[in-house]
Amino acid sequence: MDTTLIYSIAIGAVLVLLVWFGRRRSKTSDPTPDGERLDTLIGWPPQPAPILRASERLAYTTLKLALPGYMILAQVPIARFISVPKRSSYAEWMRRLGSHCVDLVVCDVTSQVIAVVELRSPDLQISEGLRRRLDRVARALAAVGVPLHVWNPDALPSIEAARASIAPKSPAVPAELAARKAAAQATTARTNVQMPFADTDREWTDEDVIEVIEMREPTAATWFDELDSVSPPQSPGDRSPQR
């Protein structure tokens, strides 16, 4: 038999098998008989679930009592408070690290993260992949100067111990913001001018003054948008003038 004919038959058989496997896989992954996409709510009926486990709730309460002037947030993605350059693949960074959530974060009044608390049992058996991921988290936090505190969920520190280990690192109100707040209060007292955006019968508190003075925005990075980090080059004629 001609060698060319044998090769043609073999290639045809391989193509038939590939098509058959592809159709079988498609039918297995799509339970609908007509191949239509599942509705999000019908295919995955949602149910309410608690955000925090019992140990995380206890740790959260400990931080709230130990640091009354600070903002405590739970289950925050790293991409929410760490910004990275987009010269490399942003999707790859999100896969490696950005989508990882830390258990608890401690912020000052400007929502700047000053400490991270992770709950991890010493005898916890974790995979090698997860261990490498946790090491990346620790290195990233160290690179941006955010202290990482690992707490044993079965032996949480006392309120006093938590305050001593976290509070001295940074005041709840940064020094620069406190000075601006004092200057704004002095100016308001001298001129007796109503604060901007104030309601007619509203009494302003220190927290309101801070909110008016400091209007910082978090990083725009989120889980699913801006994943294509490298934009296609533009020709000089396509670039719009800067305004």
What brief labels describe this structure?
243 residues, alpha+beta, four-stranded mixed sheet, 9 helices, 4 strands, 44% helix
SS summary, helix count: 9
Rg over C-alpha atoms, rounded to the nearest angstrom: 27 Å
What characteristic shape results from the CA principal axes?
elongated
The low-confidence parts are: 196-202, 208-215, 222-233, 237-243
| Extended strand count | 4
Strand coverage percent: 5-15%
> Order of helices and strands, N to C?
HHHEHHEEHEHHH
Distance between the termini: 74 Å
Structural class: alpha+beta
**Mean pLDDT level:** 76
Task: Summarize the helices and strands and which ones pair or pack.
Elements: H1 3-29, H2 40-43, H3 54-66, E1 71-77, H4 78-81, H5 90-98, E2 101-107, E3 113-119, H6 128-143, E4 148-151, H7 159-166, H8 175-191, H9 206-213
Parallel strand pairs: 3-4
Antiparallel strand pairs: 1-2, 2-3
Helix pairs in contact: 3-7, 8-9
Structure description:
With 243 residues, this protein is α+β, with helices and mostly antiparallel strands. The protein has nine helices and four strands, in the order αααβααββαβααα. It has a four-stranded mixed β-sheet. Helix 6 links the parallel strand 3 (113-119) and strand 4. The chain is elongated, with a radius of gyration of 27 Å. The termini are far apart.
Q: Summed up, what is this model?
A:
The protein has helices spanning 3-29, 40-43, 54-66, 78-81, 90-98, 128-143, 159-166, 175-191, 206-213, and strands at 71-77, 101-107, 113-119, 148-151. By secondary structure, it is of the alpha+beta class.
